[in-house]
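QA checklist item 7 of 12: single-chain prediction sanity check.
[x] sequence parsed
[x] length recorded as 61
[x] structure emitted
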Amino acid sequence: MSCEHLICARCSNPVVEGRCPTCREARSELHDHGSPVPPAVVLAILVALLFAALVLQRVYG
């Protein structure tokens, strides 16, 4: 969903323009597509998996 065609009930302007606090809040909620997992956590998981793979290779290989 995008805010291009939404009209704010508070100020009667397009939400995409963000003229009032309600518009700005709605626009930020609609355009907030950030990852729910921080990149540092993803990197830590990848490092842990690499370490586990190396240990398993030493034990079984």
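[x] summary fact logged: The mean pLDDT is 87.
[ ] second reviewer sign-off
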